[in-house]
Design goal:
The protein has helices at 9-19, 42-55, 71-79, 107-114, and strands at 2-4, 27-29, 65-68, 83-87, 101-103. It is of the alpha/beta class.
Length: 121
């Protein structure tokens, strides 16, 4: 998994450490890694490229899923060619309508996967 955020590394690192999640992400792209922030797609493009290099696998952006909670993040991911799952953490569903699928909680992802609905994204 990769992480693409408009936040600073100094903000992201402690959060991931406190949650015990730092080992989950093979690639972390932050505001310091790109010259333009979301909705510019350069962060997502860099994340996909570095993730492919890190895991030594060939895949394209459209085989990746971005999880976003803002309209600008959705636009960045879609412009980079990723499919997008939006979560209504920060905005109501109607503001996230550019995503391929919208959920109210990450907990729904497991249910969607078991129902076979995630393959449609």
């Amino acid at each position: 998994m990769g992480l693409c955020s408009g936040a600073l590394k100094s903000d992201i690192g402690p959060i991931l450490k406190n949650l015990g999640l730092q080992e989950l992400f093979k690639v972390i792209i932050t505001a310091e890694d790109v010259t333009k922030s979301k909705p510019d797609p350069s962060g997502y493009r860099l994340a996909v490229r570095e993730l492919a290099e890190t895991v030594r696998a060939e895949f394209t952006a459209n085989q990746c899923l971005a999880i976003e909670d803002t309209p600008t993040g959705i636009n960045a991911a879609r412009s980079a060619g990723l499919k997008v799952l939006a979560i209504t953490n920060s905005y109501p569903a109607e503001r996230l309508s550019a995503a391929h699928m919208i959920v109210d909680s990450l907990e729904e992802i497991t249910s969607l996967h078991h129902l076979g609905l995630m393959k449609n994204i």
